[in-house]
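re the bet — no i am not wrong, look at it urself. input seq straight from the record:
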Amino acid sequence: MRHLGLNPPDVVIIMDADCRLGTNALRHLSDSTMASGRPVQSLYFMLAAEYARPGKGCTFSPGGSKNWVRPLGLKLLGLPTQLFGTGMAFPFSVLSDRDLGNSRLAEDCALGIALASAGYPPLFVSEARVYSHFPVSQAGSERQRQRWEKGHLDNIVDLVPGALAKSLRNRNLGLAALAIDMAVPPLSLLVLVTALCEILGGIAFVLGAPPAALAISVVEHSASCAWNSACVDSGRS
């Protein structure tokens, strides 16, 4: 960024070196950033390697919620999206004074929160598509998963409370939406939490509580398990 500052461009696009660009992805990113004056996030597909064992590619597969369904839903509601670390475009003036060298494992999401807090909520542009692959080895895949989950949980603890408080003070709906979206735990933890809620709902029902508590927890847990299964199936395909 310091080097680019010697002759500032209008738009800066950030990509991981191992990603492949979809058709006209750069044009979609740059045009959307110029038109909106906001950061722009592409649709980021993370796919199973060609010879990977079945089940890989589920976390950020085309059927996964984090990088496609949730951002698309937020966009349809007129709300911003998280940043995913690659396939991102920024007006140079917006990015030039940001802290890009922090030590967070999930620094992309932290940057998205910071930009939304400053009045530049990231925009999701699904026409721009970027692709990369999961590690082939089990050990590499496990390290990557642990890194993502730890970074996600650290951001929930460190960033979500402050972002929610600031969104209420400033009546910033976009920042509130990003904070709530960030507060959704990783899928494996989410399934465990909903299972615990189902158990507690069953105990409460046996002790005389209304059946609504049990019904809600059963539906929520079933939906989480179904979504997890759908992600695994898409990873196999």
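see?? Residues 56-63, 229-237 have pLDDT under 50 and may be disordered. told u. also The first strand starts at residue 11 and ends at 14. so pay up
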